[in-house]
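Translate sequence into structure tokens.
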Amino acid sequence: MGLRKSVLIVGLPCVAVLALLLSWRFIVFVAVLLMSPLCGNEIVREAVAPDGTRRAVVFQRDCGATTGFSTQIAVVWGSGNLPDAPANVFIADGHPDRTKTDARWLNSATLVIGTNALADAYKAERHVNGVSVTYERR
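Result follows.
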């Protein structure tokens, strides 16, 4: 009877501490997993506006094995980083090499996007952040 009481007095707190540590690790693991980006951007090429205030960034966005490649174009300010988010100007199915997509500036307020993926575009904005956007089919 004394041995059983000793096991309960020593063992129960040890089991409780072990359970707490394991549950804490699980919570941290889930938090890290949820905070990690599921998608990644790979910059293919950039075009700087003539006045240097903006850049048109052509990139490929990959969101894992269950999704295909996508060609995207974002207009970002100056030398700022490309956000880890979908583009604000153009999004179409296919890798940028396959879609033959590029961007060039006519002037600091007019961007021309050339692509053969206009029919597959999910987004093809005409105006973004004070920039007029025109499209050329390839």
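Note: The two ends are 87 Å apart (CA to CA).
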